[in-house]
Amino acid sequence: MRCAQFRTALSARLDGESSGLPEVRLDKHVARCTGCRDWLAQAERLRARVRTDAADGPSPEWSAGLLARLGEDREGGQPPTAR
C-alpha cells in the first residue's frame, strides 16, 4: 500500500469518518513512516488553525469589505441596511 492511501485514511480519521483501514495498521504505518507522520502533524495543525479561525469569526475589516462589495452589487450601489 502506498503512502497516498494511508494519507487518505488519515484524512478521513481526522474528519471523524471511517478510515477504511484497521486502526492498528494505520497507526503502525504512521509510527514507521516519517513522511506520513510529518503529513499528519501538518494536517492536525491546519485543522486546529481552521477551527480556531472559524470560532473567532471573520474580522471586522473583512466583514466591512464584504458588505461594501455586496452593496456595489445592489441597484444604486447602496450597501444593505442593518436589521
Termini separation comes to: 56 Å
Strand percentage lies at under 5%
C-alpha geometry: elongated
Quantity of strands, as a count? 0
The radius of gyration computed from the alpha-carbon positions, rounded to a whole number of angstroms, is 21 Å
Secondary structure tally, helices: 4
**Order of helices and strands, N to C?**
HHHH
Can you give the mean pLDDT? 84
The helix content, as a percent range, equals over 70%
Estimated structural class: mainly alpha
Question: Main sheet?
Answer: none
Poorly predicted segments: none
Describe the protein.
- The model has no long low-confidence stretch (mean pLDDT 84).
- The chain is 71% helix and 0% strand.
- The protein has a domain at 3-57.
- It has 83 residues and is mainly alpha-helical.
- The chain contains four helices and no strands.
- Helix 1 packs parallel to helix 3 (34-56) and helix 2 packs across helix 3 (34-56).
Task: Identify the notable features of this structure and list them briefly.
83 residues, mainly alpha
